[in-house]
Amino acid sequence: MDNERPNLTEDDTELDEETLFIVSQTFKALGDPTRIRILNLLAERECAVSEISDKLHLSQSTVSHQLRFLKNLRLVKFRRAGTSIYYSPDDQHVMALLHQAIHHACHD
Amino acid sequence: MDNERPNLTEDDTELDEETLFIVSQTFKALGDPTRIRILNLLAERECAVSEISDKLHLSQSTVSHQLRFLKNLRLVKFRRAGTSIYYSPDDQHVMALLHQAIHHACHD
DNA sequence: TTATTATATGAACACTTATTCATATAAGTC
DNA sequence: GACTTATATGAATAAGTGTTCATATAATAA
Fold it and tell me: pLDDT tens, A23-70?
């Protein structure tokens, strides 16, 4: 655990290119309503592709494409169970960002 | 100030359309490297358009367009001083999201 | 093996978006 | 007034994105 004081040695100069890329990629991932809905559902519980499809009224293809997107960014993980594949969140930092944003949007 | 306990009555069911729109708009705003750089600079200190242009090596037009975008979402505010217009952040929630994301990107 | 079920994938398309260029507006100076 | 400086804006363009359709893959059951 870090100490409580803000880190005064850390300045706010220009961000390096890699950080900029990671941060923008992360926010882009959260910048689409479909992906938000999927992540919000997965936050509740692990789901198979078909469950996501059904619950959110999205085509199987759309869900699969978006899950690939989220998987590439390591925002979700998956496990196989027979012919089904169950997805769940895999980045607690990003999920925390999402929940904060949702909370603010609901209460402001 | 709210109490410390997580709100157990709040469930994670489907988000309403308005919340979904606000959240996705917010994250879209943070999903572009140029806007991230601008907000990160403004976090340090209030800047005129030309200062942003110079510091970030962006055209005046690009900066102006992006500031309009951020202004429309009420993420920045501005004040006039002669012919210059000084911009600064206007949404501490969103700035907090940005700082968190940057922090995570730098340290993971 | 064949058939079925669940998921993934590639191509096409419509739509969105970030930047540039040219120009407009607005305040200050002479 | 004319001129300069700072910023805003509209149109055009190139690049990116989300969905759909058709099809492929993979596991299972018969």
Answer: 999 999 999 999 999 999 999 999 999 999 999 999 999 999 999 999
Instruction: Give me the domains of chain B, ranges plus CATH numbers.
Output: 32-107 (1.10.10.10)
A66-107 residue pLDDT tens: 999 999 999 999 999 999 999 999 999 999 999 999 999 987
A contacts of B12 (beta carbons < 8 Å): 40-41, 43-44
What six digits make up the tokens of B40?
């990160």
Contacts of A19 in chain B (CB under 8 A): 102, 105-106
Tokens of A57: 């009224």
Q: Are B98 and B40 in contact (CB under 8 A)?
A: yes
- Residue B17 phi, psi (nearest 5): -60, -35
Give the helix/strand (H/E) hosting B76. strand B76-81
